[in-house]
Specification:
- This protein is mainly alpha-helical.
- Among the domains are: 130 residues, no CATH class; 95 residues, no CATH class; 138 residues, no CATH class.
- The strands form 5 sheets. The chain has a 3-stranded antiparallel beta sheet with strand order 3-4-5.
- The N and C termini lie far apart (79 Å).
- Helix 3 crosses helix 5, helix 6 packs across helix 7 and helix 17 runs antiparallel to helix 18.
- A hairpin with a 5-residue loop joins strand 4 and strand 5.
- It contains 26 helices and 12 strands.
- The chain is extended, with a radius of gyration of 35 Å.
């Protein structure tokens, strides 16, 4: 026997991976500086805030409205901005530039407005000139929370550098984003459809691998294997693709190279050749990457930015679970079945929105739809594409070094640097694919989900993959008369996952905390309150109002039917028939319906006289004739409290011979599984008080001893 040895030195194989240039870029102008973000290094130009802009001038911070220059003010704020934005991404930098533009325009408006005493308002030249009236003007003009907070923060820091007191401005109220969580049945339909699509992708990959292997066999002169008509069609396209690859010496031929001497696609179509299909046989398509990404996101509970930011260059990205004891296989050469085939695997990534806090999710190797197995399967398909992007990145990096050495203008360097950074992100990305034009692309943090064209009334629109999924499911729901699934985005998947965990764990907040990767329990409590309870409460209230007035229009208010409509959906004919049958049943003392009151089981009434009604009413003793309904709560609670008192008063022998212990246990189980905790507690407390006060007599005991002593 031997223990398998693993090499822990993975640095040498990955030492060439760089996220930033070796030497940081510098600018001689104090109003122009580079950030130091590892993947989104950007040149920030504050010069427009010094000399001002015209209405038709350059865009600054996302806007184009004119404002006057304030050279001293921006010179005071520039050092603070350089430190603040040093490690920020592009979107965070834009927020600060937008805040500056907003406040520059606000200051112009305040200084141009007539004052109450007729005297001109002093121009803001430096941070020392800002005061209370500027805060009031910002609140009145509706400056957003983000722009107000960003500007006030850098102003207070600049004032501290000049020995001035902070302004102490009060921020406007931040708007809470509205969350719209779709019902659970809709979420499950989406999950099932994505799993079905993923299975289709996996089967297509198996077929494509078979076709490529067969093409290689035939190219080596081996006898052809029998193929179906569809497989023969795929093989013809693949053989043509191989010829073009060998002719041009490229792995991914362009559309022009695939056309060859032809100017249109007509000759290819006549030969049953399709350029998109050729590429799809070897490389993932845009539909396949969307299916894989969305299903992995749905089954992980991560934010989209976390799933997009997975580092494919990490050698431990998908690894065996460290606490899975079945991994202790000492003899991998053994002929016994591999115990690792059904082990657990983990997937991890850094969460940008939480300071790069590491997020984990797990899955079983036998579950191909789990997030780790999806990522693992997809990584195995994109090795050639990653090499293409790596070569492009090396070429772009060499060009960037040439531009820096030549000392060209900073704008050209910035443009080339962004290209290098984009390609480095592509090398590290898991979600590479080949688009319909034959170019290598990848899903990025820009979140441009609308990639599918759709014709509506003669006009072309772009929609996301989730829009296509929703439209497909809504066609089925229309036929069944079900409500339509509203618009959803990838960020909604985290809320769906949290709700599934919360329900499956029966409200265990710690389970939700672990599933979502929160560091503090308070974050999880707030998340559940805002994203699950609020959304479910709003949806429940909406459904209740619709069904309530619908029932009122039919001249009835049936609470049982109304509860079914609100909680589970419309009644079927079978459900309505069973409801009517139950309501016609004779009721027992504990509120249960009895389907045969004249023939009780022998274990319930051993001394029963044939033809007479059951006189024991011990329905909780696993009576097969008893049917418990929502209205049975009060009766079951009454009997359970009676049994609790009887257990204290009856002799032990009498208690056991009468099998009252079984009856009590059965009643406790019914209360726990059929009714809510709050309703059960209220019902039991009600009967407990009545028994203690002597208002309710226990059959066979009358007034209890405790009641007599209290009297």
């Amino acid at each position: 026997m031997s223990v398998k040895r693993k090499s822990k030195d993975h640095q040498k194989a990955h030492k060439s991976i760089e996220l930033v240039p070796a030497a940081p870029l510098r600018s001689d102008d104090p109003l122009m500086f580079w950030t130091n973000h590892p993947t989104e290094n950007t040149l920030i130009d504050l010069r427009p805030f010094s000399h001002g802009t015209s209405e038709m001038g350059e865009r600054v911070g996302g806007g184009s409205r004119a404002f006057t220059g304030r050279p001293i003010l921006i010179a005071q704020l520039a050092p603070v901005l350089e430190v603040t934005c040093a490690m920020m991404g592009y979107k965070a930098q834009i927020r600060y530039l937008t805040a500056l533009r907003t406040w520059w325009q606000l200051l112009d408006a305040v200084e141009a407005a007539p004052s109450a005493n007729g005297r001109p308002i002093a121009k803001v030249v430096s941070v020392a000139d800002l005061g209370l009236h500027h805060e009031v003007a910002a609140h009145r003009s509706g400056v957003t929370y983000t722009s107000f907070r960003c500007f006030a923060g850098i102003v207070d820091a600049a004032r501290a550098l000049h020995g001035l007191r902070p302004l102490g401005w009060i921020h406007p109220q931040n708007k809470v984003p509205a969350r719209h969580l779709i019902p659970d049945d809709m979420a499950r339909e989406i999950k099932i459809l994505l799993k079905q699509k993923w299975e289709q992708v996996r089967r297509a990959w198996v077929t494509n691998d078979k076709i490529r292997a067969e093409g290689k066999r035939r190219a080596q002169g081996n006898a052809p294997a029998p193929l179906s008509d569809e497989e023969t069609y795929l093989l013809e396209n693949w053989q043509f693709m191989q010829e073009v690859q060998q002719q041009h010496g490229v792995l991914l031929p362009s559309g022009r190279q695939l056309l060859g001497a032809w100017s249109t696609e007509g000759p290819l179509q006549r030969r049953r050749l399709d350029r998109t299909l050729m590429r799809k046989i070897e490389f993932p398509s845009v539909e396949e990457v969307d299916i894989a990404f969305h299903l992995a996101l749905l089954n992980s509970g991560w934010n989209p930015s976390t799933m997009l930011g997975i580092d494919a260059m990490n050698p431990f990205l998908v690894a065996d679970h460290p606490k899975d004891t079945r991994q202790l296989v000492l003899t991998p050469e053994s002929t016994e079945p591999d115990a690792r085939q059904d082990g657990e695997v983990t997937l991890h990534a850094n969460k940008p929105r939480a300071g790069s806090w590491t997020q984990y999710c797990t899955g079983r190797k036998t579950h191909p739809a789990s997030a780790p197995m999806i990522v693992d399967a997809y990584l195995k398909r994109i090795g050639p594409l990653r090499e293409i992007v790596r070569q492009e990145c090396q070429t772009a990096t060499a060009e960037l070094d040439r531009l820096i050495a030549a000392g060209v203008d900073l704008r050209s360097i910035e443009q080339q640097l962004k290209k290098v950074q984009r390609l480095k992100n592509g090398v590290r990305s898991v979600w590479l694919y080949v688009d319909r034009e034959g170019c290598v692309r990848w899903l990025s943090k820009e979140k441009k989900w609308n990639r599918y064209s759709k014709m509506v009334a003669g006009k072309e629109y772009l929609e996301s993959y989730l829009d296509q999924v929703r439209e497909h499911l809504n066609l089925r729901r229309v036929e069944k008369g079900f409500p339509q699934i509203p618009k959803i985005i990838p960020a909604d998947f985290r809320d769906m996952y949290a709700r599934w965990v919360y329900v499956a764990s029966k409200g265990n907040i710690l389970a939700v905390m672990l599933a979502l990767g929160h560091r503090r329990i308070n974050s999880t409590v707030g998340y559940v309150e805002n994203n699950i309870f609020t959304a479910e409460g709003d949806e429940t209230l909406r459904r209740w109002g619709i069904h309530f007035f619908d029932e009122l229009g039919q001249g009835r208010i049936d609470l049982t039917i109304l509860a079914q409509l609100v909680r589970h959906g419309p009644l079927t004919a079978d459900m309505e028939m069973r409801l009517n049958e139950y309501r016609q049943l004779m009721r027992t003392r504990v509120g249960a319906g009895c389907i045969d009151p004249r023939r009780p089981p022998s274990n319930v009434a051993p001394n029963h006289v044939a033809g007479q009604l059951c006189g024991t009413h011990r329905c909780l003793q696993q009576c097969q004739n008893a049917k418990f309904m929502p209205e049975s709560l009060s009766g079951i609670a009454m009997r359970v409290e009676e049994l609790m008192v009887m257990s204290d008063l009856l002799p032990r022998e009498t208690w056991l011979r009468g099998r009252f212990d079984e009856e009590l246990e059965s009643g406790e189980v019914l209360l726990q599984e059929m009714f809510s905790v709050e309703a059960v507690a209220d019902a039991r407390e009600y009967w407990r008080r009545r028994i203690a006060a002597g208002e309710h007599l226990i059959p066979g005991l009358g007034v209890s001893k405790a009641t007599k002593e209290a009297a």
